[in-house]
Amino acid sequence: MTIQELNQIQQEYAPLVEVRREIARQEEKVTPFQQYRKQVLVCGGTGCTSSGSKKVIEALEKSLEAHGLSDEIKVVKTGCFGLCALGPIMIVYPEGAFYSQMTPDHVERIVVEHLLHDDVVTEYLYSETVHEDGSILSLNETNFYKKQMRIVLRNCGVIDPEKIEEYIATGGYQALAKVLTTMSPDDVITEMLESGLRGRGGGGFPTGRKWAFAKASESEDKYVCCNADEGDPGAFMDRSILEGDPHSVIEAMAIAGYTIGAHQGYVYIRAEYPIAVERLQIAIDQAREKGLLGEHIFGTDFSFDLEIRLGAGAFVCGEETALMTSIEGHRGEPRPRPPFPAVKGLFGKPTVLNNVETYANVAQIILKGAKWFSSIGTERSKGTKVFALGGKIHNVGLVEVPMGTTLREIVEEIGGGVPNGKKFKAAQTGGPSGGCIPAEYIDTPIDYDNLLSIGSMMGSGGMIILDEDTCMVDISKFYLEFTVDESCGKCTPCRIGTRQLLEYLDKITKGKGTLEDLEKIKELANHMKTSSLCALGQTAANPVLSTMKYFMDEYREHIVDRHCEAGVCKAMVFYEIDPSLCKGCTLCARNCPVGAISGEVRSAHVIDREKCVKCGVCLDSCRFGAIIKH
Amino acid sequence: MAEKIEHVFSGTQEQKQQLLDVIEKHREQPGGLMPVLHEAQNIYGYLPIEVQKLVAEGLHIPLSEVYGVATFYTQFSLTPKGTYKISVCLGTACYVKGADKILEALEKKLGIKSGECTKDGMFSIDSTRCVGACGLAPVMMVNEDVYGKMTVEQVDEIIDRYMRGEAGVQK
Prior knowledge:
The structure holds two protein chains of two kinds. By secondary structure, chain A is α/β, with parallel strands linked by helices. Chain A folds into five domains: 36-139, 3-Layer(aba) Sandwich (Glutaredoxin), CATH 3.40.30.10; 164-374, NADH-ubiquinone oxidoreductase 51kDa subunit (Rossmann fold, 3-Layer(aba) Sandwich); 384-467, Ubiquitin-like (UB roll) (Roll); 472-561, de novo design (two linked rop proteins), CATH 1.20.1440.230; 574-629, Alpha-Beta Plaits (2-Layer Sandwich). Chain A is built from 26 helices and 17 strands. In chain A, a hairpin with a 3-residue loop joins strand 3 (90-93) and strand 4 (97-99). Chain B has a four-stranded mixed β-sheet with strand order 2-1-3-4, covered by helices on one side. By secondary structure, chain B is α+β, with helices and mostly antiparallel strands. The A-B interface holds A 46-47, 49-51, 84-85, 87, 230-236, 239, 271-273, 309-315, 326-332, 347, 388, 390-392, 396-397, 428, 431, 462, 464, 466, 470, 475, 478-479, 482, 488, 620 and B 30-35, 37-38, 65, 68-69, 72-76, 90-93, 95-97, 128-137, 139, 146, 148, 152.
């Protein structure tokens, strides 16, 4: 393909895609569709697919066919819109009508009333997008989207990720064309350095420096790798990018290849992400077919190709040296550094390894310039960050905000606060390597350095909101169980240290801990930090240390008072029946799996604490609220 | 609790041919062992020692290394899974929303522990780390079907539907 051909495709398809952008609607310069009266976008990301978007699409296509609308209405299966809690999501353009929680049963009415007769079905719209007078608000005006800034996710929920033409329509592959025809590798490195882009996988190492090191290494063979082994449980940014905009990663990897002098790239992706794997493969095939991967790209001397490698469920493979060992076909165990991958990486050759989200920024930086990018964010953290917002929060989903946005803005404004009137307790970032941001730091502007200084870390972007019902000791135990499972076993401090830490925590949650244990935990954590081989072991104690720092009272309460305020640690919980509320209906006694409840019909019942296994069935089954959990 | 069952390897000639083709395809590929094991598991459903031997011979890699890789990654299984493979997500988002109680209810219902398979080979339970559907937490999967926003009460109902053959497609 030549650059002229690329431009032609862009011009041909731009009107089709442009109308889907909210911005076009606001400025009222909606270009008429070429051939479609309306376009219906349905989310085909993992979140919405899980809640049934496939069936919605099927029902939609069937209904359009039945009403003879197939030629005037275009159905587009997109990537993630971000608001996963409201899935399956469907948007109809040019109105921008945002239908949420769709089921196949809703489809017929939308087709008949809205698509056929132009009468929006207000009842099915996401309530926040309906104005008091019944008019529709733009998505950008809703609380969830208002404070967001979409650079990485700019095409997610806008284009069909399985059609390369739609990516090209948004300016796709123009950055690669620019780099190959007008920039030297050193120009690219300068641009990346000046942009201030730092690795989004968690470490925050400047991307430009990484590329410069790999370029400086002399070797005939070099490699470009992409880390899509998103292992932090509760994080799904990278998956959503690959599902919604896979070409942005392919394009960036080709740019990286040109910069360092590599001709082969690998994307290492979790096998647990079947949709992302499929879309990425389709994207690679289409790019090859168009000559955007392969020999002599845009007629230049540069050749580059990509291959997908599947992970197989090992968290440690998110560590760069372990990831490369895994691609080489071995047990994914880390290697000591130095030598760093930029000198000796995959198959012993100089290698650049970046995370998916990092790559997704690259083309935009090339096109819009380092100045533009570095104007966003804080002094030392530039650009935006995507967070997977989850846990005890209203708007569970994917959000992208400029660096420096405060936690309060994310939780209260974008996230819509904690549900059920509960109190915000902490946000966990950085997963098993990170820590907690307690309520008193809710106004901290989020960037790499601020998070480190309060004992957490940016991590890859998982952000789990915890409320007052969460026990902080239990949460640390949860993470330690995870690292014990996932420790590869190669080095002793991690293999034995994580196990020992877990045993201390287990003791504490069972009401058998001592204050001395807390001292031992700190000492052990220190040893692990300094002597483990890779980041997994070095950071494994972080969840414990950060919760001890901010929630020491809770640890003490577990140890001294044998009490778990949140009522999570079962060993410290007991159930009781309030005799004044108990009607003697016998329901709890019949439901109790161990026969621990006794009493006469129509008189108050009693729980035998010796027999009780604290399963909580009685509490759930009582209709009079007579069971009390202590 | 279910008794331990002995698994007798019952691979067919057809499966073997498929595997040999896969090995042939990846023989020259650098680091081809992982892709071969992935495809082998797709063919057989698991990776018994007999299959590992074929892979080792085909790729000229010591059996100890094949075994080492097969046991390192949690996605590879050395024992067969149930006709209905149940996975409960124990990622953080699901955990804070009570996924452990879902797992407990399942274990009680089926009389097996996580990682085990019922004696009749119908159901197996595994806990997994994050399927990425955090918006639907807590999440459980039966083969490819995803059940989101699970409650303990739904566990009985869903499993019963599979037992009666009203849900899911048998492999």
